[in-house]
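Input chain follows. Return structure tokens only.
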Amino acid sequence: MSHRFVLFLILGVDAFILFFQTSSLSISHAESMILYEDFSFLQLIIKTSIYFFGSNDFALRLPMIIFHLLSAILLYKISKKYLSNRKNRLWLLLIFVLLPGVISSALIVEMAGLIIFGLLFFVYAYENFSRKYMYMILSIYVLIGGEFVYLFLALSIFSIYTKQRTFFIFNMFAFFISLLLYGVDTKGIPQGHFLDSIAVYTAIFTPIIFVYIFYILYRRYLTKQIDILWFIASVAFVFSLLLSFRQKIELEDFAPYLILALPLAAQTFSHSYRVRLKMFRTKYRVVFVVSLILLVLNSLVVFFNKDIYIFIDKPKNHFAYNMHVAKELANELKNRGIKCVNTDYKMASRLKFYGVTNCNTNILTEKSLKYQNRESVTISYNNRAVYKAIVTKVNTN
């Protein structure tokens, strides 16, 4: 079977599943804030998609899926330097698209998907194009958002290591400009969240892959096998752990950087497997198969997340609850001829996307699932009620 056929098969199946998933998700409050609140580069992209394709979930998530597919292609191309065997590069690509954090970044409107693409695009450009283009790309990144501040910091340290004086000065300048424009949140009472951060990293990458990435970064530091990928991944990772000793951090700003360590991990794993005799390769096969099985299971949980409600006593404890209910609720209200309601601000911002605006004519009040009322609006998945509310009409005369 041609490697190109397998490549397009992986990307094609991945795209199909992601597009199919858009119909099962509702806009979250955080996504509605990106769409309706302060201007951002991501907001511009999403609104452009909605302008051409209408106000629907497909248009909302299309840019994120495109960023994801482009990121997968870039990773495949970048990994050519680290993995000469095409089959190994395809395995790396498969692992990438199955990572829980990567799947969420491909579906959820947040900066993580854009950061992953931006980092991979920069590395690919750095290794294939003239240095003058790097300055242009990094200048654009300064304007896009503060999430790239850790890239400038990593490149500054990398420049010192590689003795690139001009590149160092530029990145330090970009670093301070980014801090000036966006800052780094250090507010609040110092509290330790180190273990919480490790737990989130583990969930994003799955336990085995996260531990192996951490091992590879440390091992390459000891053996001095460090390059631009190592610097970008390591600096952001170490910085996130240092910050977590003091405060709770937004790991979606840091996790994309650690993804750049995947080619390094794949290269080391492939080399360790290849240099051993066949009789001593069993443990490597076991680790790989177990990791792949865990990734597939995690992916199935993400893709069939609504079926999990039947196992949860409190629906709001579901990890994807904030991505559910709103669309179905809006459709149910419109079917009853209700086109505007007065409700809590989080739900109001979500309903707005589906055409149910804010007014004082109808009051939407969420009730306990045990509440009995014939006029209630109930949202259920697989015959499991997950949301219930009543609509009270207000006499304005």
